[in-house]
Every structure is written in C-alpha cells, then in structure tokens.
Amino acid sequence: MHRSIARIAIFTLLNGFWGNALANVFSPKEQQWIDAHPVVNFSIHEKYAPYLETNEKGEFGIFHPLLRKLGEVTQQEFLPKRRKSDQEGLQQLVNGDVDFIIDPSLLMMSTSNLAPYQRQFFGVMTSF
C-alpha cells in the first residue's frame, strides 16, 4: 500500500522525461489506496524545509515541483510535517502520523541536460 508512494515518485520523474506515455501505471490496489487517501502527510527534516519553499529569486525548491506533479497525477494533497531528527521521523512513520519520509540524498548527482530539480537524487522512505 505505501509502496505506491515510491511508485508515484518514480512515475513522476519518468513522466518528466516521457510525457504521458505511462498514463496508467497504477494497479487497481494502488489506485484504491490513492483514492482512499486524498491527503497524504509526509515527514521532512526541518533543515530541508527550504526544499519545499520558494527562495528570494522566486525559484522553487527541489520538492515543490515534484509534490505539485504528484498532486496533479494522483489528485492528492501533500502536507509536510517537520521534524527535528531522523529518529523523530521514523517515529512519525511508525505511529502512522505520516505516510512517507522525504529527504535529499547525501549523494547529489548533477547532469547538465536535466532541469535543476531533476539533477538531484533524493530519498523516499515508506512503511510496508
């Protein structure tokens, strides 16, 4: 059930490359989970909160376009719950307070032909 978040994230990234070629990627069970969860809460470390926001130049952080696209694809609303530590995030996940954890990867990789928000790898953790 929570695997669908990871699949949605992968689909969204692929969608940026291949357009709507993969329009029906959700299984019936995944679509049922999506339909049952119009609001999805996720955990983000407070030090990464700027990745959700707009900077002084009006540029969006890496997660803003990703979550916006996820919302367009799934018709879900994604709400952040900030945390102070990784342990707190894991506790949020175990308690069911959030559906997934999203943080940038420690290893960021850059490719010149990709948009800035597509150049960086990030991590998504869900409970199974």
Walk me through this protein's architecture.
This protein is α/β, with parallel strands linked by helices and 128 residues long. Helix content is 37%, strand content 19%. It has helices at residues 3-18, 28-36, 63-74, 86-95; strands spanning 39-45, 77-83, 100-104, 122-126. Strands 2-1-3-4 form a four-stranded mixed β-sheet, sandwiched between helices. Helix 1 (3-18) crosses helix 3 (63-74). The N and C termini lie close together (7 Å). Residues 106-123 have low confidence and may be disordered.
How does the SSE layout of this entry go?
Blueprint: H1 3-18, H2 28-36, E1 39-45, H3 63-74, E2 77-83, H4 86-95, E3 100-104, E4 122-126
Parallel strand pairs: 1-2, 1-3
Antiparallel strand pairs: 3-4
Fill in the keyword field for this structure:
128 residues, alpha/beta, 4 helices, 19% strand
The end-to-end distance, rounded to whole angstroms, is: 7 Å
Mean pLDDT: 74
Are there runs of 5+ residues with pLDDT below 50, and where? Answer: 106-123
Please give the share of residues in helix.
25-40%
Strand percent estimate = 15-25%
SSE string, helices as H and strands as E? HHEHEHEE
What would the principal axes of the Cα set say about the shape?
A: flat
* Extended strand count: 4
The helix tally amounts to 4
Strand order of the largest sheet: 2-1-3-4
* Rg of Cα set: 15 Å
| Class inferred from helices and paired strands | alpha/beta
Major sheet description: 4 strands, mixed
Give a quick summary of the entry.
The protein is an alpha/beta fold.
